[in-house]
Amino acid sequence: MRIRAAVLLVGLAATGIAWADARTEAVTKLQARYEATRSMRAAFRQRVESPTLVTPLESHGTVYFERPNRMRWDYAAPDAQLIVGDGKTLWIYQPDLKQVIRAPLNDAFQAQTPLTFLAGLGQVERDFTATLQREDAEHWVLKLVPKGDAELGTLTLVVRKADAGLAEARITDPLGTTTSLVFTDEARNVEIPEAEFHFEPPPGVDVVSPPAY
Length: 213
Hints:
twelve-stranded mixed beta sheet, 12 strands, alpha+beta, single chain
């Protein structure tokens, strides 16, 4: 029995070391790809699930990123919406409401830390506690918890082993709402026209700032 117990402990230790090695490899490769990516364009599909929703909300569109802090999310009809981060200001244009929400970009992402990585403002090891939730032959699944305040939510990344690219990102907020983003047709380090990161509120819309800002 003692021999069997010893063998079991050795096996568990070996498994733990292998798991730690896999986590280190996943984080290292993800960060390296992140740092080597100057810009990105991709199609996305979004699914929002919440305890307050009867059914999930689904949408799709095109996203553009340019480091260090510029982005554009174009949501297609019927739920058209435009989100632009021009480096200083975050703009959220909701055509159906004839409204534009305007906020300082850095303040907005300090309030939603899990988004900072996707926006080009964060780093894995510096800003998050990263754990390997699981892996298979093709993917690592990493859970990132903000070091500053775990109550801000979590970011789960499905990372392709082949190229360390993001297959899916899931953002969970403190109220239990989960936003899943699946990326396809990704193009890295492409030239993105300057106009994509510029926004002017259309005539006749209300421009408002959230109370927190």
